[in-house]
Design a protein that fits this description.
Helix Hairpins
């Protein structure tokens, strides 16, 4: 076990580092800013569109999944950029796969919201 903070001190520091990560994503990642602004619209809308707790939960989870995958993709891109400015096939592949993960999360959001909208209103 590596030495370090434990208990509540560890939790406080972890929250601080998470906040710094969110601030960095907001400052440096346009896609994260766009997706967060979309989340600010979609999260309250889920309570209007959803007709059950299950539907609302699915809609909210699909929104958070996009944000989560975007954060992971942004971290991956930062690491790739940090360790190699020159073009490398594996670096490009890593970035493309991260981007594909974001696309799949967005498709999931569209599918979840689409199915719920169609089943509730059409």
């Amino acid at each position: 076990m590596k030495p370090g903070k434990t208990g509540i001190t560890r939790i406080i520091h972890a929250c601080h580092y998470s906040w710094l990560g969110l601030k960095a994503a907001w400052k440096h990642e346009a896609a994260f800013r766009q997706e967060l602004l979309l989340a600010i619209v979609l999260l309250p809308l889920s309570f209007i569109v959803g007709q059950s707790a299950s539907q609302i939960a699915l809609m909210i989870l699909s929104v958070f999944l996009v944000l989560l995958i975007e954060l992971i993709n942004s971290a991956l891109e930062a690491v790739v950029d940090r360790f190699g400015g020159e073009h490398h096939q594996l670096s490009g592949r890593a970035k493309d796969i991260g981007s594909a993960a974001v696309a799949v999360a967005i498709l999931n959001l569209l599918l979840v919201w689409g199915v719920i909208l169609v089943s509730n209103y059409f």
